[in-house]
Amino acid sequence: MGGGIGTTLGLTALSLLIAAPIAFYMAVLRIKGNLIGSGITQAYISFVRGTPIILQILLLYSLLPSFLNVVVKALGSDFNVFDSVDPFWYAVVVFSLNTIALLAEVFRSALLSIPKGQLEAGVSIGLSEFQTYCKVIIPQAMVVALPAVCNITVNLIKGTSLAFLMTVKDVLAIGKIAASYGYNYIESYLDVFIVYLIVCTVIQLAYKFAEQHVGAFRAGA
What we know:
mainly alpha; 9 helices; globular
């Protein structure tokens, strides 16, 4: 089951890394009140939050390979999308798109908790808006956002168990395969249960340590 754990953690980490910068940009657009950008962002967030993740998986996994195949053929390539692309990457796309919407709301709330005067103060002393965000606002906002990001990470780890619908061999998929050989479903599912419990507990402890460390750093500053 070790390979399944690696797949689950890899899928979680990649989804978070891809989603975080896009979600942050969406949060800034909404805060600035950009009419078009904010409207598109709000519609996207409402769509993702208002539809079941399993429906998003089934829809995108049905459409994405076909769309890519059309693009590849239009470019005149003989690349076989259906046989050559690992389903893992489709799963990364699906979970990244879902996570973007969740993180965007978390980042927006965290940024709104920081007084607007800090951005103005940073710009007034010669920092660019980008520098002010990186050096002043984001470090403070992350302290506020970390508990919610922890919840999203844990839920993402558990949510990736649905990746087996895309034939991705994560922890749950390997457990189901092992169970089918000897019909030891109870033992296999208990093993999967324990693995998820241990992984999620470790992640929560890591975030708790990060919260304490960042909080202490901020207090010291």
